[in-house]
Amino acid sequence: NGEIVLRGISYQEAAPHLVFMGYLQRIVDGGRVDREFALGTQRADLVIHYGKTQKEVIELKLVQAPKAVERGLRQVSEYARRLGRDKGYLILFDREATTPWEER
């Protein structure tokens, strides 16, 4: 139960990050997942490395934060550019119980 995990965590993005990282570790076969990967003076939430040169950037955001989507898109775009990639991935966590599953 996610609520049990979240009760003891003051940094509310930590639990979704950890769960998603655990998922990625299982599916990134032969590669690795770096957390808080330094890109200049900023840090990408996750960077997946596989092969000799392949890197993918992932930014994770809670939807409840004001302007989370707008900020996340700007961040992931900049991180992808710094990695020499033409795309990145923004993963949104919507923990609002009133949001229907079809809209999440």
How would you describe this protein?
The protein is an alpha+beta fold and 104 residues long. It is 34% helix and 30% strand. It has helices at residues 2-7, 14-27, 68-82; strands at 32-39, 42-50, 54-62, 89-93. A four-stranded mixed sheet has the order 1-2-3-4, sandwiched between helices. This is PD-(D/E)XK nuclease superfamily protein. It comes from Candidatus Kentrum sp. LFY.
Summary tags:
PD-(D/E)XK nuclease superfamily protein, 104 residues
Brief rundown of the structure:
The chain has 104 residues and is an alpha+beta fold.
- Give the C-alpha Rg: 14 Å
Give the terminus-to-terminus CA distance: 19 Å
Largest sheet: 4 strands, mixed
Please list the strands of the largest sheet in the order they lie side by side. 1-2-3-4
Number of domains: 1
- The share of residues in extended strands comes to 25-35%
CATH topology title: Trna Endonuclease, Chain: A, domain 1
What is the topology?
Blueprint: H1 2-7, H2 14-27, E1 32-39, E2 42-50, E3 54-62, H3 68-82, E4 89-93
Parallel strand pairs: 3-4
Antiparallel strand pairs: 1-2, 2-3
